[in-house]
């Protein structure tokens, strides 16, 4: 008995909120893509924070800090949210603090659900397999863009819906997930082109993020599943090791 | 310079709110379809109220009152929100009070915008022509279902977007409106069948609303454009007559 819904912006999360379902937080461009990349490349954990002030406080304490607003890295910090900046050896074993325009807020909202999973195309199959095995209801929580709906997070929700539907584990697909799936199916042959026809085209083109976007739309670069635990995002396998001890 | 966006549920209206744009409130099944029908059939005005208590107070004062919750008419009142119940001669010249699960709340939220227009497939072309002539930015405000996204209001937003795009009056189509348009285009050959595949199918089938739904999806039964003015919904032409005096 697994139901799937998509919440298109964090502002409506209150309507969907419950403590039984798994929430997959997604911010395809680029927070959740970057988070799965950083953990794949050996970061010990990601500490998501909502404000610049919190990020600054961690920076003073000596943490590596990523901070992005309006798709641009803030200069005083170590990273923005480009996945490419989380691919170097300096991050191995380190705790990384991250604040972004949209994604970290969504994580914060969902933390009282049964479990928060960080989802992106870059860890697609791993998340699908985990959700399918869980048997739980699923909410895809899109980070959106400053409270607004966006297409890239939506098609990710649609891709997850389609994959779980094909596995035969869904008993209910709500209107939101059905719509997201339809939109994904329209764009799945060339998601890059599909997104470039969207209104974010201008924003994304202006920022010269083409390489980032292509990376964020590529499937299965990693099988790491970041899970929220006590204020941190850690790989699921670390959580499982902790539980065994 | 006209931009169009779709707000999928009233809960996110705050993000889109401004006092320059025209807000088209829609609740296809069935509040806004019923409102345009009632004004077409001679009702003087519709007074939307949010609560059952307000509706009851008006009833005591002798008003005709429509009240619906969970798609069912409340027994103590005169109507539910079936458009068919607003087609009889008893309503001619009368003020009708209306409260519904979703639609009246959306109207209330949007009342500080430049103008609130009531939109449905049943008054489709009239609303499109009015919006095209206005030159203003447009927000389609979907009533949704208890704070959740629904497909029927979304495809109405998509239909409006497509019609205005074809008229060449749009300079910006936001992701939300673009997605709605894509979904409308998927279902436009047979919107009834398209909706019946949605999750609301069970709710709608259970309530035996087939005739209502077919009516609510039919185009251009009227050219009346209900406009919000001082707590009431009146036909645009009445507003124009008042302005001339």
Structural account:
The structure is a homodimer of 245-residue chains. Chain A is of the alpha/beta class. Chain A has one domain: putative 2-phosphosulfolactate phosphatase (Alpha-Beta Complex), CATH 3.90.1560.10. The first copy, chain A, has eleven helices and eleven strands. In chain A, strands 7-2-8-1-9 form a five-stranded parallel β-sheet, sandwiched between helices. In chain A, strands 3-6-4-5 form a four-stranded mixed β-sheet, sandwiched between helices. In chain A, strand 4 and strand 5 form a beta hairpin. Chains A and B meet through helix 1 and helix 7 of A and helix 1 and helix 7 of B.
Present the secondary structure layout.
2 copies of one chain form a homodimer.
Chain A: E1 2-7, H1 13-16, E2 22-26, H2 31-40, E3 45-48, H3 52-60, E4 64-69, E5 72-73, E6 95-99, H4 103-110, E7 115-119, H5 124-134, E8 138-142, H6 151-166, E9 170-173, H7 175-187, H8 191-196, H9 201-206, H10 210-216, E10 226-229, E11 232-235, H11 236-244
Parallel strand pairs in A: 1-8, 1-9, 2-7, 2-8, 3-6, 4-6
Antiparallel strand pairs in A: 4-5, 10-11
Features:
homodimer; alpha/beta; putative 2-phosphosulfolactate phosphatase; four-stranded mixed sheet; globular
